[in-house]
Amino acid sequence: MPIVKLVILGSGGAVPKADRMLPAIYLEDWLGHRVLLDAGEGVQYRLLQIGISPSSLTLIAVTHMHEDHILGLPGLVITSKFLGGRLKVLAPKSMHGALSKLGVEVADSYEEERFKIKCVEVCHTVDACGWLIQWDVGYKLDLSKTSGLPKWALTELIKGKPVKIGDRIITPEEVADPAHKRFKYLLYTGDTAPCPEMWKKVGSVDVLIHEATFADDVSPSKAHEEGHSTVADAIEAARALNAQVLVLTHVSARYPDKSRHRELASRISPPPYIYIPEDFETLLVKL
Questions:
Q1: Which of 212, 213, 219, 228 has the fewest C-beta atoms under 10 angstroms from its C-beta?
Q2: Which residues are identified as catalytic?
Q3: What does R_g of the chain's alpha carbons equal in angstroms?
């Protein structure tokens, strides 16, 4: 079953609080990929607290050069080198020169057979990437079309591979359930103001992790001028992207807690289902 685990290692914005550290989210999927989304200060210790060694990460994807998103990266690089590893870091192209000096592999995308992650440009005050992850979850077969096929053939068809039965070649598309989506998507925005251009390019996602720096006490124009979003902006993005699940993070230190964010989110009838997690909270998302 395709399940993605998200551990919120830091749900804060530019200034940390004792219970709300700088941006970092650990993602682990059912295929075994381990991805760190942003690397705020102190993230190495937080990974260790949940039992994850830096050298075990598949990759780190940082959204932009602002210090609150990258200050934890040098420590991760050094520890990984001591342990005999070499980290893969995804970042905007404007950061590649600086990051390559740390001795890491740098790119703006990563691809395996069933897993892809790429940069999508967001609307911030500096060059910034949101990270769009695509999983190939395989085909769900229409049982009325597969009656009598051997088990090995069903297995191959689910994987997206055609099979030959006698003189007949059967493709997955012929026997797939048309209501089932083969590809599932998660988008992590990092810092961004509302970004309709990006929404159009992405199309739709299943899970959206969106910043909500401000509640409703800051004017939208002020938030957008600073390259950030309000709770209402994040909900608008989720609806534009047809997201079923919305995770709000990057909450400003101006708020002593997240009660106002939760109150605003509670006024919305799902979808999307809205989560406003605390640091170290784990979310299990079924795709």
A1: 219
A2: 68
A3: 20
Number of H-type helices and E-type strands within the chain? 11, 16
261 annotated as a binding-site residue? no
Tell the burial category of 125 from Cβ atoms under 10 Å away from its Cβ (0-12, 13-18, 19+).
middle
Taking the C-alpha atoms of residue 278 and residue 259, their distance in angstroms, rounded to an integer, is 11
Residue at which a domain ends, from 180, 212, 233: 180
Query: Which residues, in sequence order, are CB contacts of 14 under 8 Å at separation 6+?
Result: 22, 66, 68, 252, 253
User: What is d(CA 65, CA 241) in angstroms, rounded to the nearest whole number?
Assistant: 26
The predicted-structure confidence for 91-139, as pLDDT tens digits, reads as follows 999 999 999 999 899 999 999 989 999 999 999 999 999 999 999 998 8
d(CA 136, CA 129): 22
Task: Give the global pTM.
Answer: 0.91
76 plus 100 within the same structural domain: yes
Range of the domain at 171: 138-180
Going 35 to 37 to 41 to 45, the CA torsion angle's sign is negative
Residue 68 assigned ligand-binding role: yes
pLDDT digits (tens, 9 = 90+) for 161-197: 899 988 899 998 888 888 778 899 999 999 999 999 9
